Amino acid sequence: MKNHLLILAAALVVCACSPKQEPLTRDFDPPIMGWSSWNHFHTEISEDIIVGQADALLSLGLADAGYVYVNIDDGFTDGRGEDGRIRIDTTKFPNGMKAVADSIHARGLKAGMYSDAGDNTCASRDVKPYGLNVGLYGHELDDCKMMFDEWGYDFFKVDNCGGRHLDLNEKEQFTKIAEALAACDNKKINFNVCRWVFPGTWVIDIADSWRTTHDIWVNWDQLKTIILENMYLVAYTGNGHYNDMDMLEIGMGFKPEEERTHMACWCIQSSPMVVGCDLNNMPDYSIEFLKNPDLIAMDQDRLGIAAPVVQKEGETYVMAKDMEHFYGPKRAVVVANLGDEQTTITVDLEALGFKGKVGIYDCFKHEERPELSDSFTLTIGPHDSEAFFVTGKRIEQSVYQAEAAFMKAYTEINEQDYPVYRRPYDIPSPRVRESASAQMGYYVTELGGWDDNWLEWRNVYSKKGGEYSMTLRYACANPCNVAVSVNGNDIAALEGLTTGGDLEWQETNVKIKLQKGWNSIKLSNPDSSMPSFDSMTLRKIK
Ligand code: GLA
């Protein structure tokens, strides 16, 4: 957790008024890489299994490739004693949990722990008595000190089945847990919130990573849902804090082409990379995919950012992000065919952010392709992906999608099907909606009406600064108002915008001045509803 509460409080003060700075050296950790016991072993774990998997990370060369965390998930407990301490299931862990952490550390690896924000862990739902009364609620500080100071673990995944059972307010309870972690002597605890949807921007202030979806399993539609969901959460990954797309199901039964897509999409989004299979029993091609050094470099890149969709043809998505330097010559690109038919797509180099000749390096074949300009055409089989490093002369980004902007009040907690969650979050928050009428397939709606319900593009770059024409693509059935500010300065109040329908898109232009380097453009209206927004386009005037 590394004193995130303090660091982030300070960072937020700075971020509110200053544009994005490029770090000279990485000052934050990359997404974690490792293995976790849950997906394959569930609660059937033991010291022998955990240490055996740690050995496999080493013998398969996965540890050398970066997979160094060995995370124990649900299933090591046996209730809570009268002294208030968690009891360990000694049939599985006869030497206790510190001994397991010590064995993992002795192998040069890092050790991960698991708990729940409420009273029971998730396994208590169906594998009783595991997980009953062993969650953190009411024991936050004591449990954290035991796991991280006494036992010496390095990573903490905190689930929320018990939190749901007790109907806890997630923001308050997870913040309390983050405070307990901050009170530990161990200052290097990597904290993962497992709340199965994007919980809200508060999570960025307290956690290193957070789950964004329900559990992954070997099912193409489920994998596709996770990939699509994370495409519009890109604004929340950054500065060492990551959307967690869940554990890797590579080696657990997906087809090779689906594993390529799985690996490429996790890496382009800078997701944590935690393998979920039995390492001693997976196909050789899965081991090779996991060890792909180019994709790992994409995931672990020093900028630590996620990639928005820059081009979409049917169910084929092109995602691109800067690597090594913001607006530097090199970008990571993944082209994912999530459809069930083979597709041919012509990838537009301008949409990727380049002009003129580019070099293209194939991250699956590990070889350079011939240099080219303007565009390149790919034929991709169903469920398959290609991944590249593209290098060349950069152009300023001109189209910014609304769904890739930072929305302070964005949460998916009150969107889902558990009515119990709606209660504490029953306030308007923005929604990302799918529509064929929207560019790249998505738009943002339900903005405005209270102070935090705004949208901001925080990564607007101008090489030299100057005057730009900003075009907003919006829709509004009833007259709506919106204020535009650039770098914290009010620029325009657009009033009475109306387009005659919720999905009737129109455009309006505003002249703005950008400073050299990074800028932020914010749309807000604390008093009433804002229009829905699809995108913002910038054209330089002078
Ligand atoms: C939840 C989590 C899983 C796993 C199980 C353990 O379902 O999302 O990743 O930790 O609980 O019971």
Q: Which helices and strands appear, and what pairs or packs with what?
A:
Layout: H1 4-15, E1 33-36, H2 38-41, H3 47-59, H4 62-65, E2 69-71, E3 77-80, E4 86-88, H5 96-106, E5 110-116, H6 140-150, E6 155-159, H7 161-165, H8 170-182, E7 190-193, H9 202-206, E8 209-211, H10 220-231, E9 242-244, H11 256-268, E10 273-275, H12 284-291, H13 293-299, E11 309-313, E12 316-322, E13 330-337, E14 343-348, H14 349-352, E15 354-362, E16 367-373, E17 375-380, E18 385-394, E19 399-401, E20 406-407, E21 431-434, E22 442-445, E23 455-462, E24 466-475, E25 480-486, E26 489-497, E27 506-514, E28 517-524, E29 532-540
Helix pairs in contact: 3-5, 6-8, 11-12, 11-13
Alpha-D-galactopyranose binds at residues 38, 73-74, 121-123, 159, 194, 215.
What does it look like?
The structure is a single chain. 23% of the residues lie in helices and 31% in strands. The protein is of the alpha+beta class. The chain folds into three domains: 6-23 and 399-540, Galactose-binding domain-like (Jelly Rolls); 33-207, TIM Barrel; 226-239 and 260-269 and 277-395, Golgi alpha-mannosidase II (Immunoglobulin-like). The strands form seven sheets. The protein has an eight-stranded parallel beta sheet with strand order 9-8-7-6-5-2-1-10. Helix 3 (47-59) runs parallel beside helix 5, helix 11 (256-268) runs parallel beside helix 12 and helix 11 (256-268) packs parallel to helix 13. It starts with a helix and ends with a strand. Residues 2-19 and 417-424 have low confidence and may be disordered. The protein binds alpha-D-galactopyranose (GLA). Alpha-D-galactopyranose (GLA) is lined by residues 38, 73-74, 121-123, 159, 194, 215.
